[in-house]
Amino acid sequence: MNKTYYFMAGLPRSGSTLLKSILNQNPELHTEPISPVLELTHYTNKYFEDSEQYLGYPKPKSAHKVISSILEDYYYEIEKPFIIDHCRAWSNNIQMLKTFITPTPKIICPVRDIIEILTSFITMIHRNSDQVSFIDQHLIEKGLSINDDNRCHYLMSKNGIVEQALWAQSQAFIRGDDKKYLHMVEYDDLINHPEETMKGIYSFLEIDYYSHDFEHIENTHREIDDQWYLKDMHHVRKKLEKKSKNPQDILSADTLNKYSNLEYWKYTNHRYY
Predict the structure, then answer these.
(1) Contact 87/5 with Cβ under 8 angstroms?
(2) Residue 226 has what pLDDT?
């Protein structure tokens, strides 16, 4: 079967699990939790660049074929014509995609206001107060006080899951020309205007639109949340609805001020870079 591969990057807590659950209603399309394909491709390429065994008798065409086959081999069991591989760092690895997979990659990027992302994380931590989340584990290791401000500061630090995704995506915008390979999907648009949003995605992918059922959504490829120590981190409601808390009720004034207006994909006067 001939397969066409697409990609998903974007930000955490921005509806990627929800979006994938909707997309998987299409019997011709497959997507699943974040995959190791990007890392496998990166480290295999690095091996060929650094290996003394290979450099002693280099075979560039063979090396290229090995690296290029990783994506297809990973999904060899999937008998569907359209596959979307998910990894938040794809938006910062467009050149690798163009070199080894496709000259015209298409990357779907679910996004959301940063303040709402932080609010979602903090709300989830409060809801799972009987667990020590991966965020609190970091604070404990660093000898920092466990409070919501420090939680947000960690998420937005260079090693934090939000900042890492935010930075990776920003690189395509900084390079300018790479922006054309991205399709931004605002969380609020997906919730409030699902059909219009999904039609935009299908148009970007250049495949026929599938009529989705937004009243009966199921996460058929549930990610294991144990590594995050946050129960139901990838839970999907059966019906589209927004139940997030008001950031002003959750976050401090300092945090609200520090991390507002960072949305470089929609504000020309953003404060991110």
Answers:
(1) no
(2) 57
CATH class, domain 4-258, is alpha beta
Q: How far apart are CA 4 and CA 77, in angstroms?
A: 14
CA dist., res. 17 & res. 142, Å (int): 31
Going by C-alpha positions, the residue among 1, 9, 3 that lies closest to residue 37 is: 9
Give CA–CA dist 250/145, Å, rounded.
Answer: 18
Domain ranges of the chain: 4-258
Q: Strand 182-186 vs strand 4-8: parallel, antiparallel, or unpaired? A: unpaired
What is d(CA 59, CA 243) in angstroms, rounded to the nearest whole number?
Answer: 55
Q: Which two tokens stand for residue 30?
A: 């497959």
Which pair of structure tokens corresponds to residue 42?
């990166």
Nearest in space to 114 (alpha carbons), one of 160, 146, 147, 159: 160
Distance separating alpha carbons of residues 196 and 51, to the nearest angstrom: 49
3-state secondary structure of 16: helix
What's the whole-model pTM score?
Answer: 0.92
Per-residue pLDDT of 45-66, as tens digits, reads 999 999 999 888 999 999 999 9
